[in-house]
Amino acid sequence: IGCRSVTISGEPVGNLEGVSATVGGIRLSGWALDADTAGPLDIHVYVDGGWGGLAVADRFRPDVGAVYPRVGPNHGFDLVVPTTSGAHQACAYVINAGPNGGTNPLLGCVTVTVDGRPFGNFESAVPTAGGALVSGWGIDPDTNDAAVEITVDGGAPVTVPTSTTRDDVAWAYPV
């Protein structure tokens, strides 16, 4: 019938789709797979040339599974790498899992500026007997022990810890 030459690449493939500054670090997301295995791959992240963190590409990604049905849909990753404030270069590599190929391909490098300034939202002040009930939230990316200062009519500030759990804030600013 005939002969054909076929080249089989054993190199993993993937895509670094999202890189952004987040509270206390850099968030990286995307997908990666290796035709040599249907299992998840490791993603190594380096920040400013040094070790940053590890993600496992095992999150559900139906779009990836539709394009690569043989390996399935569980090849997404999402990772927050802790950093200090300032500009940082983050590079993500997919780690080769199979016997074919021998490199760990670069998914991408991006420079991101992380802002470490505290921020929050003053939501309300409701009069009560002898005072006011004040509500809101605050985050200081440099510590887990954030606090806010409240002043009334220019008086002495009162420091209040931000220790109340707020699922809406945690969802919007995951750490």
Task: Describe the overall structure.
It is elongated, with a radius of gyration of 23 Å. The longest helix has 6 residues, at 62-67. Strands 1-2-6-5 form a four-stranded antiparallel β-sheet. A four-stranded antiparallel β-sheet has the order 4-3-7-8, with no helix packed on it. A two-stranded antiparallel sheet has the order 9-10. A hairpin with a 7-residue loop joins strand 11 and strand 12 (158-161). It has helices at 62-67, 167-172, and strands at 13-22, 25-33, 41-47, 50-57, 59-60, 74-82, 86-94, 106-114, 119-128, 131-139, 147-150, 158-161. It starts with 12 loop residues before the first strand and ends with a helix. By secondary structure, the chain is mainly beta.
Order of helices and strands: EEEEEHEEEEEEEH
Rg from C-alpha positions? 23 Å
Proportion of helical residues: under 10%
End-to-end separation in angstroms reads: 60 Å
- Mean pLDDT across every amino acid position: 89
Q: Briefly note the structural class of the backbone.
A: mainly beta
Largest sheet: 4 strands, antiparallel
Q: Into which percentage range does the β-strand content fall?
A: over 45%
Q: What is this structure, in a nutshell?
A:
The protein has 175 residues and is mostly beta strands. The chain has helices at 62-67, 167-172, and strands spanning 13-22, 25-33, 41-47, 50-57, 59-60, 74-82, 86-94, 106-114, 119-128, 131-139, 147-150, 158-161.
